[in-house]
Design a protein that fits this description.
The protein is mostly beta strands. Helix content is 0%, strand content 48%. The strands form 2 sheets. Strands 2, 4, 5, 6, 9, 10 and 11 form a 7-stranded mixed sheet that branches. It has a 4-stranded antiparallel sheet with strand order 1-3-8-7, with no helix packed on it. It is built from no helices and 11 strands.
Length: 122
């Protein structure tokens, strides 16, 4: 099973980026998936998740700015990031679960992508 994250880059404050995560080796249709991020010197933290039923969950610091979505036919996960702030600078990781919920804890995810770096300049 592989999760390949892409779409990171350098953007100015207030700008937008869309991250994508291509899954292979297993279908994640009907299973929970999520995005986490890790800033330099900090622990990995939850960003957003989507359950097998399409229900979503967001951390307070991205709610209203980020949108998680999935394309089950293509086995892909996306994260639309708008109104980016310098504090959003981090490596973003996609993750897949064996369960169907909208999980917030990293331990709930069995599969992880390699990460894609997002840098927001002030």
């Amino acid at each position: 099973v592989q999760l390949q994250a892409s779409g990171g880059g350098l953007v100015q404050t207030g700008g937008s980026l869309t991250l994508s995560c291509q899954a292979s080796g297993r279908t994640f249709s009907g299973y929970g998936m999520g995005w986490f991020r890790q800033a330099p010197g900090k622990e990995r933290e939850f960003v957003a998740s989507i359950g097998g039923n399409g229900r979503t969950n967001y951390s307070d610091f991205v709610k209203g700015r980020f949108t998680i979505s999935r394309d089950s036919a293509k086995n892909t996960l996306s994260l639309q990031m708008d109104s980016l702030k310098p504090e959003d600078t981090a490596v973003y990781y996609c993750a897949g679960s064996r369960g169907i919920g909208t999980y917030l804890q990293a331990v709930s995810y069995a599969y992880w992508g390699q990460g894609t770096k997002v840098t927001v300049s002030s």
